UniProtKB/TrEMBL annotation:
<dbReference type="InterPro" id="IPR014016">
    <property type="entry name" value="UvrD-like_ATP-bd"/>
</dbReference>
<dbReference type="GO" id="GO:0043138">
    <property type="term" value="F:3'-5' DNA helicase activity"/>
</dbReference>
<keyword id="KW-0238">DNA-binding</keyword>
<dbReference type="GO" id="GO:0016887">
    <property type="term" value="F:ATP hydrolysis activity"/>
</dbReference>
<dbReference type="GO" id="GO:0000725">
    <property type="term" value="P:recombinational repair"/>
</dbReference>
<keyword id="KW-0378">Hydrolase</keyword>
<keyword id="KW-0413">Isomerase</keyword>
<dbReference type="InterPro" id="IPR000212">
    <property type="entry name" value="DNA_helicase_UvrD/REP"/>
</dbReference>
<dbReference type="InterPro" id="IPR014017">
    <property type="entry name" value="DNA_helicase_UvrD-like_C"/>
</dbReference>
<dbReference type="Pfam" id="PF00580">
    <property type="entry name" value="UvrD-helicase"/>
</dbReference>
<keyword id="KW-0067">ATP-binding</keyword>
<feature type="binding site">
    <location>
        <begin position="26"/>
        <end position="33"/>
    </location>
    <ligand>
        <name>ATP</name>
    </ligand>
</feature>
<dbReference type="GO" id="GO:0005524">
    <property type="term" value="F:ATP binding"/>
</dbReference>
<dbReference type="InterPro" id="IPR027417">
    <property type="entry name" value="P-loop_NTPase"/>
</dbReference>
<dbReference type="Pfam" id="PF13361">
    <property type="entry name" value="UvrD_C"/>
</dbReference>
<dbReference type="InterPro" id="IPR013986">
    <property type="entry name" value="DExx_box_DNA_helicase_dom_sf"/>
</dbReference>
<keyword id="KW-0547">Nucleotide-binding</keyword>
Length: 610
């Protein structure tokens, strides 16, 4: 076994705790994953039996496996994965006991569930007659309500005969039964069913739960603050009948999956009542630095605690004459840091892969790309998988219009397009049908672009050039966003065309949808990312550029006010807390618009107290 290293006294007490129930309250940055991994390593050194380690994401499970990869036969000696993955393995092995022929097909996509609920409605004639009289919004709202009810029934493990105690809406009860009947007739189940049927197997067949109980030496649960009822009950069935070698690790203040019925009460209250565990608090912060957390605390004062932080770190807020000087400084600073190689704040070497540059919107990286390239610094864009995401309202309309043009049967995007244009008219069979629905020049231009592209797409550059030359739009912020989106579309076309023997508009759209046209697709070097794409990720060194007001917060949020501004403040907080050690925040006092005008800027309203 690999020797445990760099454990604090409290971390050591968890890793080498005596067998028995253990509740570890691990605050942010306290080394939770390290403690959990080393605890698993220690447990495996004491037994030939299996250990069960349950996580809430595949990513967390993969990270734990990677840290334990030097252990022989780790795959056979430990189940390390999500609750759903574990319950799926139970169904794969024993689903026949519930009448399934082989492992049922899983309908995990919400679109599949929406289609199933439509079918369920059609099977209830008394309700279907009322349903067809509803407008589209009422139908959509009812389907969401029905699916929410179905999910809650399954998470709460409610028996069919007990429905009446949970709703007086007979239509919902009938829909649940019809929905489940359709699934069973197709030897299928949805995501919530995986836990429900695993629980039924373990409770209806005691010998089965006893077999699992005997096969595991210990159970460890990561991020236990996100447990919901179904998950906790599955856990209890296995950790029953005297089995108590179970550890829950989590932070009550970081429960994030509330939409799944999760609650910290399962870890904080029920587990404590059911198992009377030893409780250890890990409250030293080894992940984040003091300076970064102090800066984040100025954004959201109640969110961060800095008293137990070990590393000092760096925070700097810098102003530059313009975005070009800003980009030059960032590139040179990164070059300097990589040349430094070592610093006591950062474990290991300072490399490009440990550095991220964040911005509110992707177009802000334009000047920076050239500066990084001039210094031969490798970089790549962290992309959200799937379709290209445009930022301007006009190009969002373009995307919907192009979908409708390429697939006239696409009712979903016809509906979305009509709503975006402020109408309920869903005829929309030609550009002229759509263009008359709006008096906004930028939306008309976007619609014309979608419908005037030829089938090979080869006139795209020409049409984009014409829009830039002819478009009249009083709102300069919206115009700038549109110009940047047009540049982005052209980049994707170039990437598509150079990898295609022949081009077609339909193929281009599909390639964008699959993420095949993104530039700089390699995953090495400095990470460039929008803040929205970076949630859940952390780097030792982070730069946040473009923090001038109406850039961050975004000008649209400034105009909307209210909850939109509050969300922008949360985005700024997220950006700051992506840094583990050093954080550099920059802004330009002037910014050049795409057509050459220069506008004065002031620092973000979130940073005026710095």
């Amino acid at each position: 076994m690999k020797k445990t290293i760099e454990l604090s006294e409290k971390q050591y007490s968890v890793v080498y705790a005596e067998n028995g129930p253990l509740y570890v309250k691990a605050s942010a940055g306290s080394g939770k994953t390290r403690v959990l991994t080393e605890r698993l390593r220690h447990l495996l050194s004491k037994t030939k039996k299996k250990v069960l380690a349950l996580t809430f994401t595949n990513k967390a499970g993969a990270e734990i496996k990677q840290r334990l990869n030097e252990i022989d036969d780790i795959e056979s000696r430990a189940f390390i994965g999500t609750f759903h993955g574990f319950c799926q393995s139970i169904l794969e092995s024993h689903g026949n006991l519930l009448g399934f022929s082989g492992m049922p097909h899983i309908f995990e996509d919400n679109a599949d569930r929406m289609e199933l609920i439509e079918q369920a409605i059609e099977e209830i004639p008394t309700y279907a007659l009322k349903y067809v009289e509803k407008n589209e919004k009422e139908k959509r709202d009812f389907k969401f309500k029905a699916l929410s009810f179905i999910s809650k029934v399954k998470r709460d493990l409610i028996d069919d005969e007990d429905f009446e105690n949970h709703t007086d809406n007979q239509n919902l009860i009938l829909l649940y039964k019809s929905y489940q009947g359709i699934l069973r007739s197709q030897n299928a189940l949805d995501f919530d069913d995986i836990l429900l049927y695993a629980f039924k197997l373990l409770t209806d067949f005691p010998k089965l739960s006893s077999m699992y109980r005997r096969s595991f030496y210990a159970i460890c649960v990561d991020e236990a603050q996100d447990l919901n009822n179904a998950q906790y009950q599955v856990l209890k069935v296995i950790a029953d009948d005297g089995f108590d070698n179970i550890m829950l690790v989590g932070d009550p203040n970081q429960s994030i999956f509330h939409f799944n019925g999760s609650s910290a009460k399962y870890m904080n209250e029920l587990f404590v009542d059911d198992y009377q565990p030893a409780i250890v608090e890990l409250n030293e912060n080894f992940r984040s630095s003091k300076r970064v957390l102090e800066a984040a605390q100025k954004i959201v004062p109640e969110a961060e605690h800095v008293e137990n932080v070990v590393k000092e770190g760096i925070f700097e807020l810098k102003c530059f004459n313009n975005e070009f000087d800003e980009a030059s400084w960032i590139a040179n600073k990164i070059h300097e840091l990589i040349q430094l190689k070592k610093h006591e704040d950062i474990e290991g070497s300072i490399t490009a892969e440990r550095i991220a540059i964040l911005a509110r919107n992707k177009y802000l990286f334009k000047s920076l790309e050239n500066e990084l390239s001039n210094l031969t610094l490798d970089f790549y864009y962290k992309m959200t998988p799937g379709a290209v995401k445009f930022e301007s309202s006009a190009m969002k309309v373009f995307d919907m219009a192009l979908r409708v043009r390429l697939n006239p049967k696409d009712k979903l995007h016809k509906t979305k397009l009509s709503h975006a244009l402020g109408t309920t008219n869903e005829t929309l069979d030609a550009a002229e049908d759509i263009a008359v629905l709006t008096d906004r020049n930028d939306l008309k231009s976007a619609i014309d672009l979608a419908y005037n592209l030829n089938e090979e797409g080869k006139n795209l550059k020409q049409l984009i050039r014409a829009i830039k030359e002819d478009l009249e739009l009083a709102d300069e912020d919206e115009k700038a966003m549109l110009f940047n989106d047009l540049d982005e579309l052209e980049k994707h076309w170039i990437n598509y065309a150079k990898n295609s023997n022949s081009t077609s508009l339909l193929q281009f759209k599909n390639s964008m949808a699959l993420g095949q046209t993104h530039p700089l697709a390699q995953h090495s070097g400095i990470t460039l990312s929008t803040i929205h794409t970076m949630k859940g990720q952390e780097f030792d060194i982070v730069f946040v550029l473009g923090t001038d007001d109406e850039t961050f917060p975004d000008y649209r949020a400034v105009r909307a006010g209210g909850i939109e501004i509050e969300q922008e403040k949360n985005n700024m907080y997220v950006a700051f807390t992506r840094s583990k050690r050093w954080l550099y925040v920059t802004w330009p006092s002037s910014r050049t618009m795409p057509w050459g005008d220069v506008r004065r800027r002031r620092v973000s309203r979130f940073l005026t107290d710095f």
